[in-house]
Amino acid sequence: MAQDDGNRRARFGGRNEGTRGDAAAARGTLDRDLEKLTHVEAASRALTGGLTAPALASLFLLLSGAVAYGFAGDQSGIVLVVIAAVLGGYMALNIGANDVANNVGPAVGARAVTLTGALVIAALCESAGALLAGGDVVDTISKGIIDPGQVGDDAIFVRAMMAALAASALWVNLATVIGAPVSTTHAVVGSVMGAGIAVAGFGLVDWPTMGAIAASWVISPLLGGIIAALFLAFIKLRLIYRDDKIAAARRWIPILVAIMAAAFAGYLAVKGLKRIWRPDTATVLLLSAAVFAATYAVMRPVIRRQSAGMENRNQSLRRLFRLPLICAAALLSFAHGANDVANAIGPLAAILHAVEVGDIAGAVVVPGWVMIIGAFGISLGLFLYGPRLIRMVGSRITKMNPMRAYCVALSAAITVIVASWLGLPVSSTHIAVGAVFGVGFFREAFVERSKRRRRLVSGGAEPPPLSREERQRRRLVRRAHFLTIIAAWVVTVPAAALLSAVLYWALDLVMA
Predict the structure, then answer these.
(1) Contact 434, 220 (CB under 8 A)
(2) What residue spans carry the region label Disordered (predicted)?
(3) How many CB atoms neighbour CB 424 within 10 A?
(4) Rounded to whole angstroms, what are the CA distances from 66 to 60, 70, 243, 371, 372?
(5) Residue 367 CB neighbour total at 10 angstroms
């Protein structure tokens, strides 16, 4: 009997184990099928997302050509105008994808605003700046590099401008692909120079102006980095390392925000609104002083009210800097749209003027539809391709928080004003990224100095030297990104010039 019960249990146990094994196998098969389905869905989303951006960009370029044909379709050179409009739209897309990251990247990296919020703020402010106060197109066409009047033939000038527009857009596109924020202004400068050399040789180029631009490659990021580091040092000493952080915040944050407001008032007066208003130095100083006083009067009770009940910790300070940082990102975007939209529509306006009037040396009037192509293209390029560079500037070079990002934004505004007074042709991209580097390198030096001081106070022995891998791990600025960006900056003008010359010679063979 016992043997029969054992045999029965063995049979049922084996059957149960077999059933459990079958169920496990079925679950395993189901899991694998679901995993495959998940991979298929992920691949489908990636494919769809990968195709959506180029499709929308292509549609925008087609619409740009259609708009050009609709507004300028009754003249003999309409084909050139349509091609130039497509190239101008392409350049605008690349400006949005690359250049705008410098304005909102630090705010996103500091988590003061989400990526989606930053995209919306930047798109609205860039478009407003471009449409309301678009920069001086005549200066952007030649940048003082070449004299259009020396070219002579309007057909040659049109080909040169088309080559310059295409070359600058292609170079900025390449820089965006490799993750390097570069100056679109310098790309246009190099392209115009290269086309001018291809047309009439090296004698056509104003080399003293080129020397000043080359000097700005060094001066812009260094000045931006130094100013940002100085403000971060001030914040650390006067706010972060104080026993009563809230009292320090109530005293100093209204002053810091007022400095930022005054700097941006001067920035917009000097750069962002130059198409509609050109004040003298005394007026700019008076305006900045008035804005400083008004902002301080408003922010002092606001900061006191916001800080009521806050804990005495650094997180509270970060919260108090968020709103000023968002405002700074919006103002930077407005000024950038006003100043740099001309990089996209300047050569386009010059081509249109040459085709319509046949005059290549006179003042150029920018039609409204040309400005709309530039403004909308910048915003669309920002939405489609901007997040990659925003993340690069905001978090991959060095870690950001609201105080550090605030120092970057403030440095950008102050450096532009100082450089304008000194007559230096600076790049907002170089300034902003240089400020990010300055903040990161200052933090490295500050941390190392603090460790050394603690060892001296405690009488501790000097630690053994660190390995190369450990030193790299402890660095607060990623050297790989640093070297990539610096290399892209150095080669932007010569690379854009060479590409523009090659494109001009190709166009000359096809169109001559």
Answers:
(1) yes
(2) 1-26
(3) 17
(4) 10, 6, 64, 15, 13
(5) 17
Question: Is 93 contained in some domain?
Answer: yes
Nearest residue to 198 (alpha-carbon basis) of 151, 139, 138: 151
Q: Which residues are CB-neighbours of 318 under 8 A, at least 6 positions away?
A: 110, 401, 402, 403
Both tokens of residue 461? 């022995």
Q: Are 182 and 169 in contact (CB under 8 A)?
A: no
Q: How far is Cα 72 from Cα 93, in angstroms, rounded to an integer?
A: 22
Q: Give 284-290 contacts, CB < 8 A, sequence gap 24+.
A: 284/417, 288/262, 288/263, 289/262
What is the DSSP secondary structure assignment for residue 85, as one 8-state letter?
H
Report the C-alpha gap between 353 and 172 in whole angstroms.
25
For residue 315, give its domain range. 47-511
Model pLDDT for residues 11-57, shown as the tens digit of each residue: 544 444 444 444 444 444 444 544 444 444 444 344 435 678 889 99
Q: 209-244 burial, b if ≥16 CB within 10 A, otherwise e?
A: bbebbbebbebbbbbbbbbbbebbeebbebbeebee
State the Cα torsion 323-444-428-163 to the nearest 10°.
-130
Residue 165 confidence (pLDDT) above 70: yes
In the chain, the percentage of residues whose pLDDT exceeds 90 is: 28
Residue 38 in domain: no
Examine residue 26 and state whether it is found in any structural domain, yes or no.
no
pTM: 0.80
Tokens 């020396």 locate to: 150
Q: Assess contact for 254 and 296: CB atoms under 8 A.
A: yes
Is residue 488 within 8 Å of 190, Cβ to Cβ? no
Give Rg (Cα) of the chain.
29
Among candidate residues 159, 151, 158, 86, the one with its CA nearest the CA of residue 509: 159
d(C-alpha 273, C-alpha 275), whole Å: 5
Tokens found for residue 96? 């949005």
Contact 317, 239 (CB under 8 A): yes
- What dihedral angle (degrees, nearest 10) is formed by the CA atoms of 56, 60, 65, 71? 150
DSSP per-residue string spanning 134-175: ---HHHHHHTTTS-GGGT--HHHHHHHHHHHHHHHHHHHHHH
Q: SS3 of 497, please? A: helix
The CA distance from 82 to 62, in Å, is: 9
The answer to whether residue 4 sits within a structural domain is no
